[in-house]
Amino acid sequence: MRLAVVGWAGDSGVGRELIDAVRNLPVSCAFILDNPNKPTRKDLLVGTPSYFAQPANLDKQMELFIECHRLAPFKPRGVDVDVVLDLMIHDLDVILSLVKSPVKSVSAVGTPVLTKVVDIANARVEFESGTIANITASRVSQSATRKFRVFQQKQYLSIDFGTGEVNLTTKTGEWKDDSIPLEFDAWSLEKADALLAETKAFVNAVKTGGPVVVSGEDGLVAMRLAIQIQRDIYSRLEKFS
Q1: Out of 86, 89, 153, 237, which could bridge 78 as a Cys pair, Cβ 3.0 to 4.6 Å?
Q2: What is the largest CA-CA distance in the chain?
Q3: What residue segments make up the domains of the chain, in order of their start?
Q4: What is the reported pLDDT for 28?
Q5: How far apart are CA 239 and CA 182, in angstroms?
Q6: At what angle do helices 89-98 and 216-240 cross, to 10 degrees?
Q7: 33 Cβ partners below 8 Å, 6+ apart?
Q8: Cα 156 to chain center, whole Å?
């Protein structure tokens, strides 16, 4: 997980808890900047690049089901953390940006394969709203896959973050005889540097004092969910040891 954190003296409890999480977990980078000229400001900007790569084509409907697959061949980079913090955290960040509801329950399973920590994992997250998310992450797969699917009552969106292909199916009416009221759209995401967009958002928040794209509270919720998934995985593994 890559975090960009900007803070000032007197940060809130949320800011301190997030920064503590950054220090205690091996995230890849964190920046804490003190600005004595703005002692009352308490902004934190947190983001993963996937947040800045998602399309904004979904209707404002309740998400019924979200399915994510983030699979990658094994690479020595990042093996000091498990696959939840290495890969799954990116999809958790995107899911939480879509589902504006507290987490109700988590059921997760995973196992080490090549390292001493979990290399492949699956989590089923249910929200208070009724939305269910099924997330699979692996860093020991033969090929790379990054697919994100969202099911709503009248829409189905499929995104392939690897190829940039997006497919959207929308229900436009009621089914009658030979009329199938489904509209199909397909397009490709514009090639852009999500990491650059994230950094620009960070710099813009510092320069203008405007609202942050992903707040400290957002980052903390994602981190808490990742830790909850980890705990369920490792407690389940203990039953098999």
Answers
A1: 86
A2: 70
A3: 13-240
A4: 36
A5: 47
A6: 130
A7: 6, 7, 8, 206
A8: 19
